[in-house]
Amino acid sequence: RPLLSAVDLHKAYGSTPALDGATLHLRAGEIVAVMGASGSGKSTLLHCLAGIVPPDAGQVHYRDRELSAMSDAERSALRRTEFGFVFQFGQLVPELSCLENVALPLRLGGTRRRVAEQRAAEWLGRLEVTEVAGHRPGEVSGGQGQRVAVARALVTAPRVLFADEPTGALDSLNGEQVMRLLTEAARHTGAAVVLVTHEPRVAAYADREIVVRDGRTRETVLAER
Ligand code: ADP
Ligand code: ADP
Predict the structure, then answer these.
(1) Cα–Cα dist 177/179, whole Å
(2) Candidate from 88, 197, 212 with most ligand 2 atoms within 8 A of CB, to mutate
(3) CA of 87 to the centre of ligand 2 (A)
(4) What's the number of CA atoms in the CB half-sphere (13 Å) around residue 92?
(5) Closest of 62, 85, 49, 66 to residue 158, by C-alpha
(6) What ipTM was assigned to the predicted interfaces of this complex?
(7) To the nearest 10°, the Cα dihedral for 179, 181, 185, 186?
(8) Which ligand has an atom closest to residue 88 CA?
(9) In what order do the strands lie in the sheet containing 65-66?
(10) pTM to 2 decimal places
(11) Ranges for the ABC transporter domain (predicted)?
């Protein structure tokens, strides 16, 4: 049984259609790339799957719960405890050190500072950016910042990691490094990954590929990896 399922989603912003029959089943621990041209509906699909945007029609189930049947408080609790997020850029708190940024989700969940920072330090090590622990996000490179963002997204051991163009602002070498570390870290914690990207080189890190075109999904089964 899938961990997270979206069935026949429809969504329009005013008169602009964004999703027009999108279906995606995500099994525990698998990495799925959502591919497609700019404006095809990839981000909207991710936002519906994560319970950030309500679809106009269709259903999203996480385990046995339908997201639209949950209260706002239940959906935000779900996002905080079961989901992790990585975006293209701009997600780290500029006033905090990189270590404090990674520790933040644990601190917000009530973990004591010493324990949270020790776990954050382990995660910076896993993402091979131990050296930026004491620096603020503005003082590190784009690739380092994204590795810190991945550490922060996974430090709470979410069941699903949502990554929207996580390498979009990086050159190809840094992008490959972030994808290698992101996929290794997700496999380590057993998190499933929804990876939105328009780059085939990034999608190559996934187990499976879904193509979105004009708001409709099509599955592409890839050769064994
Ligand atoms: P992608 O991620 O593939 O680039 P999006 O899901 O961002 O696609 O967008 C799908 C369509 O919905 C596009 O036409 C886009 O302009 C429109 N859209 C997305 N978000 C909004 C929004 N918040 N308000 C209005 N239109 C939107
Ligand atoms: P696009 O398809 O153009 O990348 P997105 O809808 O993915 O647009 O979001 C645009 C930016 O807004 C992202 O780069 C991300 O930094 C930020 N963003 C979107 N959703 C969230 C969220 N739930 N929490 C924090 N930042 C977000």
Answers:
(1) 5
(2) 88
(3) 6
(4) 29
(5) 85
(6) 0.71
(7) 10
(8) 2
(9) 16-26, 4-13, 57-62, 65-66
(10) 0.88
(11) 4-225
Regarding the beta carbon of 117 and ligand 2, being less than 6 Å apart is answered no
Atom of ligand 1 nearest to the CA of 46: 6
- Which helix (H) or strand (E) is 175 found in, with range? helix 172-189
Instruction: Give pLDDT tens digits for 10-59.
Output: 999 999 999 999 999 999 999 999 999 999 999 999 999 999 999 999 99
> 23 C-alpha vs ligand 1 centroid, how far in Å?
17
- Alpha-carbon gap, residue 60 to 47, rounded angstroms: 11
| Ligand 1 centroid to residue 216 C-alpha, Å | 13
How far, in Å, is the centroid of ligand 2 from the Cα of 46? 10
Between CA 25 and CA 4 the distance in angstroms is 6
> What confidence tier does 218 reach under pLDDT thresholds 50, 70, 90?
confident
pLDDT tens digits for 99-119?
999 999 999 999 999 999 999
Query: Which residue is closest in CA terms to ligand 1's atom 25?
Result: 13
Atom of ligand 1 nearest to the CA of 198: 3
